[in-house]
Amino acid sequence: MPGRATTWYFAFNEFNDAIFTREALSMRLMGRVEELREAGRLAGGRIARSTIDRDAECFVRTYVSKTTKKGLTEDGLESPFAELGLLAPLAGGALQFRRGPKPSLPDEVFALALVDFWQAHFPTRGTLSVETVAHEPGSPGRVFLLDEDSLAERLERIGEVTVGAIEWDEGAGLRQVSARREVSSLASLDFVRSTYAALGEAA
What we know:
Blueprint: H1 6-13, E1 19-20, H2 22-38, H3 49-63, E2 87-89, E3 95-97, H4 107-121, E4 127-129, H5 130-135, H6 140-143, H7 148-156, H8 158-161, E5 166-169, E6 176-179, H9 189-202
Antiparallel strand pairs: 1-3, 2-3, 4-6, 5-6
Helix pairs in contact: 2-3, 4-9
């Protein structure tokens, strides 16, 4: 588990409850933090439950807008991440992860996440299966809550987004992506820089 943004990493990559409450997330996260601390994988002393509770609340507020009875966003502020539709409030204060297509997620941001994941976890591997990209901790499928069909649709476009650096391959009954260059040589930020530069010129 990364040392930074521990709550975010845990929620998207290790916490597998599709429907949950803030209290359940906080309790499970507290248990995981204690496991890591006892194993010597988390620096510092014991972390207070109140700190974990605040982090869990901050996580939820990042993806779910808190509205008033009139339907207005509290304080007139809304996190831009709420537009991703990753979390949905349910009756009784429960929450649900929304797995499926994410129309507001740019292909370029998806490509950046894919390359970062590939370099961090499989730097010497030339191919990755759809299952790996969908389900491995830290993968785009986990962090963006994409189902396999939605993921495959994006991977079919990955060659255009990465200018051929990564290509979709369905040969021999396999569904995978292949790196046409050394994965370590790919600069993931280039995929978003060119897109936002073009948007700036258009504006």
